[in-house]
Amino acid sequence: MLGPVETQSVSPVFVGRAEELGTLYDALARACEGEPQALLIGGEAGVGKTRLVEEFAAAARRRGAVVALGGCVEIGADGLPFAPFSTALRALRRELPGELAAASAGQEEELARLLPELGESRAGRHDEDGMARLFELTARLLERVAAEHTVVLALEDLHWADASTRHLLSYLVRTLRTGRLVVLATYRSDDIHRRHPLRPLLAELDRLRTIRRLELARFNRDEVGRQVAGILAHEPEPDQVDAIFQRSDGNAFFVEELAVADHEGCRTGLTDSLRDLLLVRVEGLPESAQQVARIVAEGGSTVEYRLLAAVARLAEDDLIEALRAAVNASILAPAPGGDGYRFRHSLVREAVSDDLLPGERSRLNRRYAEALETDPSLVPADQRATRLASYWYHAHDAAKALPAVLEASVEARRRHAYSEQLRLLERAMELWDSAPEAVRATLRPVDYTEVYPPCGCDPATTALRHLDLLAEAAVAGRLCGERERALKITKRALRLLEDEDDPLRTAWFWIQRSRLVQRLARGDGWQEIATAQELVRGLPPSEVHAEVLATAAHWSMLREPGPETLTAAERAVEYARMVGADEIESNARLTLGGLMVEAGQIEAGLAHMYEVRDEVVARGLAVVVGRSHVNLPSTLEGIGRSEEAVTVLREGLRLTSTMGLTESEGWVWGNLAESLISLGRWDEAAEAAVSAQRLGQTAGPYGSGANSRAFLALARGEVPEAARHLAEARASYGPHDPMPQHDLPISCLTVAVAAAEGRLADARAELARTLASGFPLGTQRYAWPLLLQAATAEADARALPAARDGREQVPDAILSAVKRLTTHAPVWLAHERWVRAELHRAEGRSTPATWSDVVTAFEPLGRPYDLARVRYRLAESLLTGAGEDERERATELLRLAHTVARHLGARPLEDAATALARRARLPLMPAMEPGPAPADPADALGLTTRERDVLRLVAAGQTNRRIAEELFISPKTASVHVSNILGKLGVSGRGEAAAVAHRLGLFPAEMVMPGPTG
What we know:
5-stranded parallel beta sheet, 65% helix
């Protein structure tokens, strides 16, 4: 093997680029301070992008940074999936083996898709979160490695990047928030034509404020003179500089070529074409060196020495001499790492490749393919399948190319490179008719396909069908975001199936269409699901049948739950269990558990859901892990068990973050915001809602976060802010796929905002529209707050003359809806009493007895804001013609309501309590008895020393589990202490207890430091 060979064509002096280097050094300095940096360097071919990166990399190394360089690899017209990231991660592994091992610990199976050296990647069903999960884990890996070391990740030749590489780069620059990391990418700007696949990414990145873009200009005449002087090692003549500058137009690479040609006395032999100049240099080599150059040109960006030797078929000494001649002439250069050769500049490779004759090109590709088939170890294992497929395809041998392309598609799927998988499958379909029937007959579905479930046929004798490729391509298109292409593929497949009696495969394609229609916002997908249901009706159990039933049950649970949905979920579980479809079974059991809870079988349904959660966590089924930590706590919140929901959600955050389940993490944050609102932990809820919107990649998490922020703004009196967040939520969900869990909270907030703005007619119109649609079974958790908001609006507007028109119909409509809603959970029974009490208030017949029942219903629920509101209403009712006893009771109720409102920042409620107390001449602060005050207010409350310790942690927002850990007691003992404290303070919940502690100044501020909860 040859070592690096010095040449005279590259100037040893780095010329110009002071401004660009300054920008790069500034980025490096910022990264060293823990602020990740992203830069794009563009410029025409030969302008000096690589030289700039090399100069910066050398400077970064001198400053202690670790530089990981990866180049996009071109093989013919194909790019290797994730090639630059795989190369860069290998470099990091060599430089920081311990740090990379620690950063990837626990996720080696997933990260092995990018870096096979980490282990075997996990097999299993592929899902739409798979690629995002890999991207998130890659971002976390880089952040962890860059936590202690400054890392420069340089990706070259982005114009050759495969789609998966482009998607990963986009994800990184959008999501990296911490770490001493510089992400740098170069691309050829002159190659980016209007339809170039890199163009959309560049436009997307231009919109980000976090990325800097450098465009390298050509050298001016002075810079060209300095470059030529460096190449020639002496000062050139002015005329010579003028000529080279004029011919090269300041392009650094052409300056080098022209300077060398001029120095070698070739000036008079130059043609007017710079491309011909490059070929003249090659044609000046010995014939064997020219032959090697042609071989390397067709082999890809880099060709390994052993592979080159196998293809060239020269004696080793002759090959070495040919390589030495090409390297000394600065045509070829040893590849980084010393394991192969590449052209010193891609412009020379392209010129040589373009000069190949058509037959010569296919012959060289065949020789590459034959050599690689004979000895697969000639290239890295993670490149073998893709390169072999490309070589055989460009050799125009369909019989060899079809199985090779299919093998490459399997490798792309394994690496979550679904865009490349789709391209390869489309290439396989292009080759299908050209390949001999005898070859097609040897192909087996079990070897190349996995998305369509086994059909029960003998895998040893069942031949691969064109429909199998369509199935794989449809799923690959959906998973990589090419949903329009995927939809067209399903249409094609269904047309082909019209002439076949294959109901299971037809049903499977209809389920794929349903998912695509929903993701493309073309409808709700039910028509497609219903068609699939009809096709499988009456057929024996199968995986397709189970998937159809599970999909139908899940769809109905979200949109039209009812007895039929419960039955479908039960059958889906049964069928999936019979055929061993574990993931389908787990999903169906989650759906079944949720439906059982909605039907009133609360404990049995929750037991189902907890069981599934524990099983999928133990088995590492990532997708179902995410869903279980979304659906289970949502169901718990739906029956008022908010504390329990928060416990599950906190664990869900840990798991989804660790497993890279970004979309599920967004859902978890959204559900956490909702439960924290119920528990009166509003500041935490606001932070959770922001996280849901930041992480949510689909409408659900983003809209949920917007809803929570709208509720908080409204409760705090910030009506314009509430209206803004409401508009965000409405826009996020869109009109194409209505769901009660989206639409009813939107309606509730719409009524609330309209009422707050004095638009009672609009509030009534929204209520009427919603009531006309009805409340599907199982939607009481969304329906009760809406009815309560409408009833409250009517009661608040009772004295307004403008509210009289239409008033008679509204309470009756609300009451009619109340009678149809279920109240099988204490929280909804309490809401029913509250709605009825508000309707009584709207009619002017509110009584203390009515409101006392409502307060009693809410006291054990741990919902401080709701309890404060109904206590305020009870106080208001007591003060109507009240005696002294009623006034005393009203005073205490108002104090409690006021304290909670002030603690939460609920200004409208706080102001209302203050105003009512002022009108009734009631003191909101208890009168102080004459005489010396106790040294410690806690003594007056009768708190023991241990109870004071517990209360301090309650005031800091800690859970019973965290209190137990802090005080070295059991959680059960902590719970007993908390109950005793609530009794002594005369409050019903932890939020109120914290408010009392703060109001009385029981603990100095520095002693009450909020910590992590859950």
